[in-house]
Amino acid sequence: MSKSASIHSGRTRFAQGIVAEFWAPKKATSRAVIIYDGCPSVPSKKRLAEFFARKGYWVFHPRYRGSWESTGEFLKESPADDLGLLIDSIPKGFKDSFTGVKYYLDIREYIVVGASFGGAAAILASRNPRVVKAIAIAPVVDWKAETNEELFEFFVREITDGFPGAYRCPKKNFRKLLRRKFYNPIDWTYTLKGEKLFLVHAKDDPSVPYLPTKKLAQKIGTTYIERSRGGHLKSLTIIERTMWKKVNAFLKKQQKRVGWADNSFKGMTL
What we know:
Strand content: 15-25%
CATH architecture: 3-Layer(aba) Sandwich
Order of helices and strands: EEEHEHEEEHEHHEHEHE
Helix content: 10-25%
Distance between the termini: 36 Å
Number of strands: 11
Number of helices: 7
Shape: globular
CATH superfamily: Alpha/Beta hydrolase fold, catalytic domain
Strand order of the largest sheet: 1-2-4-3-7-8-9-10-11
CATH topology: Rossmann fold
Number of domains: 1
Low-confidence stretches: 256-270
Mean pLDDT: 89
């Protein structure tokens, strides 16, 4: 029997029509990981989810409201707000859509993981007091900062023309991303706790510029790993052996009991 065969997975529907896949660990636990997708992307996080489930976490992989299987209107509200709905719903119980089995969990610690578009969600979701740690890989930190290879208008066209029906909203909703405080981590710097965040970016990222991520890390004194090369890094970067050692140490480190992050800049280069 393979390792993955011993990890139970299922699908469920939470508040406001949010559909999510979930993976159960072998033993009871009070810890959970929520994985946010990039955009546009095909929602497939089985390898990453099974990795965390084998480490002893419940894992949830939701679809943003108004995208893929979830109902609603995409970008009507900030995608980071989906997290609050999710962690309000989980303790109330959720049913496996395939087996009909209902689960009631007592989750005490939520960890959020996101890459690219989902990296912004992970950073902003870290403001929730029930989130103890957040990991953002190649995150969008400032929607007004563009690369020459991927302008904002190209991003919108890629979604509307390349993924018709997968993200359901009027085109005007995409302009919300350029607004202050809608889905822009750079505008929420004063509310972020550096000790909660672990940021990773590559200098040669052709899609999302790395400098806004680096500047955000410097401002809030958070863990930041910068790679000289690697392009637009994916969430699976987390499970690379060298990276996982750093991520695991970060997850095990206790948060400070009082105060916000200090002004130190914990920068690393790989």
